[in-house]
């Protein structure tokens, strides 16, 4: 039976996302999804975007319309 991490990973893949983000404090790609014990309940699906914000270490960003809501 798949665990929560596998269920989330499959859903993200099926919907064309590259990982999860909580808008710069944390971001994780599908290959390393949920690597730490942090609470991911505030994360949203996102896409990998290189160089979007040089002051932000994460490369996963939500869609623009999602970003406006958050």
Quote the distance from N terminus to C terminus.
33 Å
Number of distinct beta strands:
4
Task: Give the biggest beta sheet.
Answer: 4 strands, antiparallel
Mean pLDDT: 80
Q: Could you say which structural class the secondary elements and strand pairing correspond to?
A: alpha+beta
- Content of β-strand: 15-25%
Rg from Cα: 12 Å
Q: Which sequence of strands runs across the widest sheet?
A: 2-1-3-4
Residue runs with pLDDT of under 50 for 5 or more positions: 66-70
Helix-strand topology string: HEEEEH
Task: Give the overall form.
Answer: globular
How much helicity do the residues have? Answer: 10-25%
Give the total of domains.
1
The tally of helices reads 2
Describe the protein in words.
This protein is α+β, with helices and mostly antiparallel strands. The chain has one domain. Helices cover 24% and strands 19% of the residues. It is built from two helices and four strands. The protein starts with a helix and ends with a helix.
Considering the chains and any ligands shown, give keywords for the structure.
single chain; globular; alpha+beta; 70 residues; four-stranded antiparallel sheet; disordered C terminus
How is the topology of this model organized?
Layout: H1 4-14, E1 19-21, E2 27-29, E3 44-48, E4 60-61, H2 64-69
Antiparallel strand pairs: 1-2, 1-3, 3-4
